[in-house]
Q: What sequence folds into this?
């Protein structure tokens, strides 16, 4: 092995797979890998590097931390609990020697924790769906019509009837009976011509000027009764001419 000292041999760490130069006097000892920090048992006899092995080799120091390790023992090391299996491992370990899990800076969740998180997420989703359904049910008042007005807006005014509308509807009914409805001329004012009979019924006594079949302007005096039927619906109950 070119560049190696005669009393050094090369071994491969079973954890990080790095090639390590090991002093011959440490053969058979249990030592810590200088790369990953995992404990490893050195062979009792020299092993040759495999052909085509990686060129990166790390030399062991015969004296670690200024003190040679005691025979049959190890120097004190910082340890931590594996986040996956809970077993004690080295603080600098990148792979658990007990369960084989890869360790990184961000602690991964165990399968049991991931299953628990997934179940909690599904439970929250079901709860949100139930709350939305309940809100829609209450807004619909058990299937009834939903109001289109927002809480800050006033509800639209209910339709109503009055003298003005009765006078206008009467004109429409009368013009439908004229020979030339486009020539109709109505008198000014309506207050003294419209009488509310109660219950949405109105009597109108008035006249209208319009052209007859020969084009002559004629005046027709009449008495009509119109009734409000709700909304925009009106009905002509009676119509008589003088």
A:
């Amino acid at each position: 092995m070119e560049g190696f000292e005669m009393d050094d041999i090369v071994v491969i760490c079973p954890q990080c797979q790095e090639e390590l130069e090991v002093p011959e006097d440490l053969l058979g000892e249990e030592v810590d890998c200088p790369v990953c920090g995992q404990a490893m048992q050195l062979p009792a006899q020299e092993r040759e590097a495999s052909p085509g092995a990686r060129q990166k080799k790390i030399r062991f120091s015969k004296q670690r931390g200024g003190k040679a390790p005691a025979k049959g023992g190890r120097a004190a090391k910082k340890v931590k609990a594996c986040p996956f299996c809970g077993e004690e491992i080295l603080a600098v370990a990148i792979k658990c020697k007990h369960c084989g899990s890869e360790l990184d800076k961000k602690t991964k969740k165990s399968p049991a924790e991931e299953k628990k998180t997934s179940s909690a997420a599904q439970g929250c989703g079901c709860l949100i769906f139930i709350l939305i359904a309940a809100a829609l049910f209450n807004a619909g008042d058990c299937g009834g019509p939903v109001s289109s007005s927002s809480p800050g807006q006033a509800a639209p005014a209910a339709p109503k009837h009055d003298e003005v509308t009765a006078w206008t509807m009467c004109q429409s009914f009368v013009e439908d009976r004229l020979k030339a409805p486009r020539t109709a001329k109505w008198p000014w004012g309506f207050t003294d011509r419209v009488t509310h009979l109660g219950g949405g019924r109105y009597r109108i006594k008035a006249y209208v000027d319009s052209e007859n079949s020969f084009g002559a302007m004629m005046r027709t005096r009449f008495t009509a009764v119109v009734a409000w039927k709700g909304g925009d619906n009106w009905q002509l109950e009676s119509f008589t001419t003088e």
Residues 13 and 19 are 7 Å apart (CA to CA). Residues 1-6, 52-56, 61-76 have pLDDT under 50 and may be disordered. Residues 163-241 form one domain. The radius of gyration is 51 Å.
